[in-house]
Amino acid sequence: MDKHEFNSNEWVIAGRPFQSRLLVGTGKYRDFKETRLAIEKSGAQIVTVAIRRTNIGQDANEPSLLDFLPPDQFTYLPNTAGCYTADDAIRTLRLARELLDGHNLVKLEVLGDQKTLYPNVVETLEAAKILIKDGFDVMVYTSDDPIIAKQLEDIGCCAIMPLASLIGSGMGILNPWNLEIIIDTVKVPVIVDAGVGTASDAAIAMELGCDGVLMNTAIATAKDPILMASAMKKSIEAGREAFLAGRMDKKLYSASPSSPMSGLIK
């Protein structure tokens, strides 16, 4: 079955079925209570967690995210935010697997520098090879380079996650053409990751044919995170429906009235 076939809202990552195509992060909220309320409003089933920054059992004396987002209700996606080498990323995800009782669905990101947080694709490729051999199902944050995206798929990554623009920038989709090439080139799910600022950005990603969108800052730092989470849920659904419906052709200087001219009452 083609990954975009219109017979169900369900989609699959590494053999796991999901209904919501919105993936959300758990950082930058005021507290875990707000995190829970926003994520519930978003309808997201997959939540990312930065192992280096969020307590999921590492510190028994501090509140744990697991108490607010129980793993039996949400699919955790441990990520390697803050890692700048393949070794750091691999070590972090092995720790996550221990903390989450053998959980192997992960998000790999290896960053190039602290200013831009742009992905280091060389280190990312190296880490992906080792993690996949180690039994992980790797969803991978990467640049919007179609060649790198195909290489990551060929290695065995179960989802390709190209940036729309820089992490936390809110600049939206700066290069839709590269995203379209990636969507046409790889067979695994393509999930826009990073740069979404508002609901229209998410809708555009889905209209292009992306399988999903991952976001954190756009919701968590909104003036009303709960309301923004609701808006993002609707934008993902609307963008997906628009993609499946197929938009009208663009026609420069070719006006076409909404109502036909023939058969007018005289």
Could you explain how this protein is built, in words?
The chain has 266 residues and is of the alpha/beta class. The chain has helices spanning 32-42, 65-68, 86-99, 121-133, 146-155, 176-185, 199-208, 217-220, 225-245, and strands at 11-13, 16-18, 22-25, 46-50, 75-79, 105-108, 137-142, 159-162, 191-193, 212-215. The chain is built from 9 helices and 10 strands. The strands form 3 sheets. Strands 5-4-3-10-9 form a 5-stranded parallel beta sheet. Strands 6-7-8 form a 3-stranded parallel beta sheet, with helices on one face. A two-stranded antiparallel sheet has the order 1-2. Helix 4 (121-133) runs parallel beside helix 5 (146-155) and helix 5 (146-155) packs parallel to helix 6. The longest helix has 21 residues, at 225-245. The N and C termini lie far apart (52 Å). Mean pLDDT is 89; it is low at 3-7.
User: Strand count, sense and closure of the main sheet?
Assistant: 5 strands, parallel
This entry's quaternary arrangement is: single chain
Write out the strand line-up for the largest beta sheet, numbering strands in chain order.
5-4-3-10-9
Beta-strand segment tally: 10
> Number of helical runs?
9
Order of helices and strands: EEEHEHEHEHEHEHEHEHH
As a percent range, the share of strand residues is 15-25%
Task: Give the integer mean of the pLDDT values.
Answer: 89
State the share of residues found in helices, binned by percent. Answer: 25-40%
The first-to-last residue Cα distance is 52 Å
Low-confidence stretches: 3-7
Structural class by secondary-structure content:
alpha/beta
Broad shape: globular
- Whole-number radius of gyration? 20 Å
